[in-house]
Amino acid sequence: MRTLAEGWVALEFAIPRMGKRVDAVIIAGGIVFVIEFKIGAENYSATATDQVVDYALDLKNFHAPSHRRYVVPLLVATDAPDNEFELRWDADCVASPLLCNEQTLALAINAVFGRYTKAG
Fold first, then answer.
1. Residue 118 included in any domain
2. Total count of domains within the chain
3. Calpha distance 95→91 (Å, rounded)
4. Per-residue pLDDT of the chain (120 residues; tens, 9 = 90+)
5. Which helix (H) or strand (E) is 62 found in, with range?
């Protein structure tokens, strides 16, 4: 398995031309992880899930380095229960959102990173 040390991390990343800010973006091994944190949230709301998916699509379409990469939206509701990860890819290489809590975020990243890395 490759390490994330070979990548890049940005906090409060501004999406070009969109006027939006993603809480965190990790780019490593050809994968763009788009992370939205909901601190203290006890559930995975549809609104928050839609928000992180919108950010992922905005990056895919308006951030040139993301055009040819896999993009994985991750919603982190810190106090929500564990959720099984079911990774599905759309034709544009944007994954279905993964729902994580503070305990499972690293597990989700490692699961995706270990299976779907490619040269960036």
1. no
2. 1
3. 9
4. 344 457 788 888 887 666 788 999 988 878 899 999 999 999 999 999 999 999 999 888 877 677 788 999 999 999 999 988 888 888 888 999 999 999 999 999 988 877 765 544
5. helix 46-62
- pTM of the predicted model as reported, rounded to 2 decimal places: 0.85
Q: What is the CATH number of the domain that holds 54?
A: 3.40.1350
Q: Whole domain around residue 27: which residue ranges? A: 4-107
Residue 20 is assigned to a structural domain of this protein: yes
Among 87, 107, 84, 106, CA closest to 97: 87
Tokens encoding 39 = 């601190």
Q: Indicate the pairing of strand 98-100 with strand 31-38.
A: unpaired
Please tell me the number of Cα atoms within 13 Å of 88 on its side-chain side: 5
Side chain identity at residue 17, one-letter code: R
